[in-house]
Each structure stands twice: as structure tokens, then as C-alpha cells.
Amino acid sequence: MTDQTHPYLSRNLRAASFGLFLVLVGLFLIMYPLVEESRAFFTDLKLTRIIDHVYYPAPSSAHPLFYHILRNFSITWGAWLGLLVLIELATRDRPKRVAQTAGDCVFWIGTAYLLDKIAATSLSFGSFLALLIVVIGLGLIIRALMLMGLEGLWR
User: I want to staple 67 with a disulfide (CB 3.0 to 4.6 A). Which of 5, 32, 52, 119 is the partner?
Assistant: First the structure.
């Protein structure tokens, strides 16, 4: 199966993904006090100095429930993206699309790991932000490696 023989499969998977994303957001709003926790987190942000005249917003107190909620969402969404990568590989979807989904999966699973660490207070908020940049970089590296590998295999 190629993208040419099943032109609508990829588009339908994307529509299903967007639908699942909306369902997850709705479920998380119902299951968790997400609005209240978000409000508490954002009102708690204070400017923290990194070096002279360079600041970033950081919470002045711990918000483990907020991080827990975001971690659960990240795990769920990352697991869906992992399944989606497998489906895209099985249907030989376009390499660029498979690579993008794989990179996104790495980002969400990595973010879930970091959120778990910050919720357990074994990671400071500044370290969380720095490591989030690392996770973004890892996602981009996975995306590039997958793209190179799949384009070589599927020629």
C-alpha cells in the first residue's frame, strides 16, 4: 500500500488524530480541575533572574497536580502518536509524514517524562525548561533520521 493507492487513508488518519485530540482535551477538562490548576499556575508565575537583565517566568511554588495532569495528557497523546507511526509505517505513508509523527511522539513522551520529574520535585522549573529544549532537539533529530532512513528504504 502506498500513498498513491490509498490517497484518503493519510488524510483520514489526520482527521481522526485531530478528533482524538479534541476528545482528550474535553475528557481532561471533565476529569481533572484543569482550569483551576492552570489559573493557579499562571497567577503564581514570577520573573526569575537568569543573568543580568535576563529573566524568565517561573512559578514561585510547586504545582504537582498541574504537572500530573499535563503528564497524563502527554503520555496519552504520545501513545496515540506511537500507534499512528506504526500505522503509517504499515501503510507505507509518505516518509515526511511518518518522520514528523515519530518526532512528535518523541517530544510528547519526553515531555511526559520531564513533567513526571518536576511533579515529584526532583527537577526545578528552570531545569525543566532547559531539558524541554533538549527534548525538542531530540524530536527534530529523530525526525531527520527517520526521514533519511525511510527515503532510503522506500525508493
Answer: 119
Question: Can you give the pTM of this predicted structure?
Answer: 0.88
In angstroms, the CA 103 to CA 136 distance is 9
d(CA 62, CA 40): 10
Q: Dihedral through CA 4, CA 154, CA 134, CA 117, nearest 10? A: 80
How many other CB atoms are found less than 10 A from the CB of residue 105? Answer: 21
Burial call 85-102: b when 16+ CB within 10 Å, e when fewer: bebbeebbbbbebbbbbb
Mean pLDDT across 108-122: 97
Mean pLDDT of all residues in 7-24: 86
